[in-house]
Amino acid sequence: MTLPHDTHATTPDPKLESNKQTVLAFYETGLNNKDFDAASKLIGPRYVQHNPLIADGIGGFAAFLAYLKETFPKLRAEIKSIFADGDFVIAHVHGIRVPGQRGTAIVDIFKLEQGKIVEHWDVMQPIPEDAVNQNGMF
């Protein structure tokens, strides 16, 4: 299959780059720094959460962040790759709740509207001690 030549392939789309920067800032302020005030500025007027353990809305995010701050104060999220397509940003993340642990491989999907995060999905897989291949998870 031959795809048509895309003349914009080498020119970054400013909206896509801005959306990626918003998500990167969300990880840093919200998850890594646990700064609700800063992170909440990156969330839109509605926030739909698809993780069944987190409630919808800014209140759900506030409760989740308070839980992390209390239970996993040293939690870190390291973005391994980030992609944007339309209104969506997808991040491949290495999450470590407690320093020294192997952590979790995470794929987060965010939907943005007018530069703000309005929806979130995630899938998580614990990083095993032993793997049957040498490919790694990142």
Q: Give the CATH topology.
A: Nuclear Transport Factor 2, Chain: A
Beta-strand residue fraction:
25-35%
Task: Determine the number of helices (DSSP H or I, runs of at least 4 residues).
Answer: 3
Assign the CATH class: Alpha Beta
* Major beta-sheet overview: 5 strands, mixed
Q: What is the CATH architecture descriptor?
A: Roll
Uncertain stretches of 5 or more adjacent residues: none
Number of domains: 1
DSSP strand count: 5
Q: Strand order, biggest sheet?
A: 1-5-4-3-2
> Which range best describes the helical content: under 10%, 10-25%, 25-40%, 40-55%, 55-70% or over 70%?
25-40%
Q: Mean of residue pLDDT?
A: 94
User: What integer value in Å does the Rg equal?
Assistant: 16 Å
SSE class: alpha+beta
Rounded to the nearest angstrom, the distance between the terminal CA atoms is 29 Å
Order of helices and strands: HHEHEEEE
What shape does the CA trace take?
Answer: globular
